[in-house]
Predict the 3D structure of the following.
Amino acid sequence: MPKAALTSTRSDTSTPQVPPPTGHSAREPAPPARGGKRAPTVRKPLRARLKRDRALLLLCIPGVLYFAVFFYLPLAGNTIAFQDYQPYLGFKESPFVGWTNFTALLEQPEFWSSVWNTLEITAVQLLLFFPAPIALALLLNSLISNRTRRFMQTIVYLPHFLSWVVVVAMFQQVFGGAGTISGYLAEHGIGAGNLMTNPDTFTFLLTSQMIWKDAGYGAIIFLAAMASIDNGLYESAAMDGAGWARRMWHVTLPGIRPTIVLMLILRLGEILSVGFEQILLQREAVGPDAAEVLDTYVYYHGVVDGDWGMSTAAGLMKGVIGFVLIVVANKVAHRLGEQGVYR
Amino acid sequence: MTTPAISLFKRRTARFTARTDARPPWMERPTWYGQGLKVLVLGAIVVAVGYPFLIALGTSLAGKEEIAANGGYVMFPTEPTLQAYEAVLSGGVVTRAALVSIGVTLVGTALSLLCTIALAYGLSRPGTVAGKPILFLVLGTFLFTPGIIPVYLVVDQLGMIDSYASLIVPIMLNAFNIVVVRAFFQGIPDELHEAARLDGAGEITVLCRIVLPLSKAVLAVVGMFYAVSYWNNFFNAMLYINDGAKLPLQMVLRSYVLQGDTINESAMGVSSLPPSSATQMAVLLLAIVPIVAVYPFLQRHFTKGVLTGAVKG
């Protein structure tokens, strides 16, 4: 959508006299005479258009208010990253301190530890989590029987709708200190210990939780891409003697390549977001050395410790890097001849 | 503006459902080991997803001796009992939290749907005065994130700390859902609008009489997306709620199951408690049940929602 919206807006604003071509006549209170659609009507004055659209504009008000107050106002509120923000002084009275918060932040070892943890977790997730939905989609797509496939889809989509609290609790009952599998392993002399509190394996614990929860749901989009591949391609490949592996490599994977690139770009834009709720829930059990990531750093230093300016600075840096990454990744995708997210 | 998302989707589903059970003639017979491996993997997936549910259900229904004998968890209780559920639902902390969650979910979903429909419809008609800037306002939320602290400060300034509103309003609208509903509205043929207009109907009448009745399916899905997000949300409660009586179910689950807070008799409002792992699992099940209950209805349609949102990009 935005793509179409973006292009049409550009042309729209550059030539304001020409009304948008589609269905505009339908919006007039009295429809013009037959054939009136073809002759470009001169756009009405702003006042008349406001009057004509007042019902629609009224409908937009609550939503616009919401985004203004809970999205754009906080976005502007990031200026406190440059302030020595004091809650009792508030927004306007707090003194401006320039880049002080940022320099102080960069000198903090805890901050750098959270950056490294974030990067480590994100790298492991990219490597292990990102391919999981694709693999699952390939498996589901290879099922011939519709009933089996539907049944499997029902099973694998479900965990996505559970909350992180529930998912972590479920992992705990299996892998926790008193968990069923840990108990079983301990009985047989393999002391795996409590995986839920082990900092060394934390990254893999997080990744396996993500796979359990979201791999199925992530497969939906790849399955749809696979379903739109022309069956004739498979047939002719088979005629030429390609086995299932070659058909997968030469037909299926190229067929879903644009989707893979799209998802990769979206993932890159969120490279510094590594599952905030999920980690927040387990930070106490594992300890901040392994489980402090950028988002939890912001939460604990800002909301909990009241170091508003500096933690906002950390959040702002994260947001800016994410924004730059998504723009760059999109550019690269265009260079590679892929569609990307937007144009 | 046509709706490529919708038409694309229709084409795709058409093919998706056109798939038959029969093996196409050009496809080779599967080897026994290939087939066996596949069955094994599928079986492993089913077990991996189903196992934690079974343990939670079994343990919540098990009696004291059985849990002690099994070292904490029971998959198939020999003498199922509803003690744990009776205990948590008898009017204590958990009952209260469940009521808070239900209230927040119902009120929140209604508000979300109302505002989503209004905004999506306002943006769905071509050539509206401020349509383009407003659309950009909505789409811009995909690109930026305001960050935790500034949002917290806004909620604080509005005096919403420790109010139920703080569990609803900050997550009331979702740009993705608005885009999905808007795309659906745009797929409704223009002739219907024109016909209604000739009969003298205004925009609101068209929305209520023509557009909404045609959009039941998409509204059901989006409504359930919202409901699930309210029901599952714990972070807003963690941020904004200090008063223990206003905590939703997910927070209570977190403190009992993840943080190991002990559940005592007085908090539950009963004189004697079933074993703690049974009560914990009963709370867990309470948090899952509404999701599993709506899931079958949700599942029929949500692929559509996911695809519309994704194709829109």
In short: The two ends of chain A are 11 Å apart (CA to CA). Chain A has a mean pLDDT of 82.
